Structures are given as structure tokens and as C-alpha cells.
Amino acid sequence: MGNYVTIQDGTYNSSWVIVGFDIEDGRGDTNSGKGIGLIPYVYNDKMASYMNSSNVTTGGYQGSYMHNTTLPAIAAKLNNILGSHMIERRILTTNGVANGVSNNWSWESQKLSLLSEVQVYGSAVFGSSGYDVGEACYKLPIFNYVGHSSFIRSGFWLRAVVSASGFAIATSSGNATDNYASGVSWVRPLLYIR
Fold first, then answer.
1. So where are the chain's domains?
2. Is the Cα torsion angle 28, 33, 34, 35 positive or negative in sign?
3. What pLDDT digit, counting tens, does each position of 91-125 carry?
4. Which of 6, 66, 122, 168 has the most CB atoms around its CB within 10 Å?
């Protein structure tokens, strides 16, 4: 844990740090099984994006541009290199927002997902409701030893809805906050491989 590998996918060419082992085993409505959890280690400006093109959180995390366009593009590139080593996980994510608060969720299959606040900090901080945590209700083991800004001092998106206009981010200075959905921050998704 803490070591990293560089995945040369032709576009993102990023180093990924090992954040834990078997962290998804037993999670989801179907078991993902044993594996290695990775998140990007080195900042790559091609892995920066907004959550939505305007300052809205309609449809929650599932309704976001990040979830529907940015992450699938990254996953497709990684899949070309990693193939069957990438594990498709079942994740529970928000799909409804009322008055700036997440109010619904559903299961879906994904190869990449943004981190929850709990995975980074060990608790919910700015998220609007318990729906923002979903199945990602555990702290990644790496963050028991180092803070999220230890690898790189660059803010990155988390999947929690904070308001009608913003999502949570982990900042470059190590603190928790939020950003307007149209702001650009680093994309630091969880990848699970075997």
C-alpha cells in the first residue's frame, strides 16, 4: 500500500497509488470480490473536469456530466490496457435531489467512481444526506496513514451533493469544502483491479 504503478493508456498516462487490498470484497448488491484499489497519484491536466457544465446538481451524482461522460471516457482508455483486470463494481449512487439535498439512490455497475467523503475523511462532512455515502461507507486504508493532499497538492472532486449548485471537493491544502458544479477540479476516481 502506498506504492504506485504507471498505466500508459495513451491519453491520461497517470501513476496510480495502491490505496488498499480487498476493499470492495463483500460490498454491493453483488460481491466484487478480492482486488486492489487504486487512485491517481500524479496530477495530469487531462484528468481535470467539471461535474456539470452549469451550476446544478439535478439527478445527483448519477445525473452529472462527470459520471456520464468524463469517467466513462477514462474507463474506456484504461480498459484498452487493463482489459479483464478491471473489476466492474456495484455502487450505490444518488439519482435525485430536492431543495439541494440528495433524496434517492440506486445500484449501478461501474468500473470507476469518484470517492465518497467517508472514503477520504472517515466521515461525511459537507454531503447533503446519507444518500451521498451509499456503499462507500468505509475509509480507504491509505488515508489512515497519510492525508489526501500528501500525494499531490491539487483539489479533487468527491461524489457528494452539497447543495442545488455544488458538489464536495477535497482541497489542495488538505481541507474539505465544496465547489460549484461548473468549476474545474481534478478527477481522482477509484479503480479496482485483480
1. 4-193
2. negative
3. 999 999 999 999 999 999 999 999 999 999 999 99
4. 168
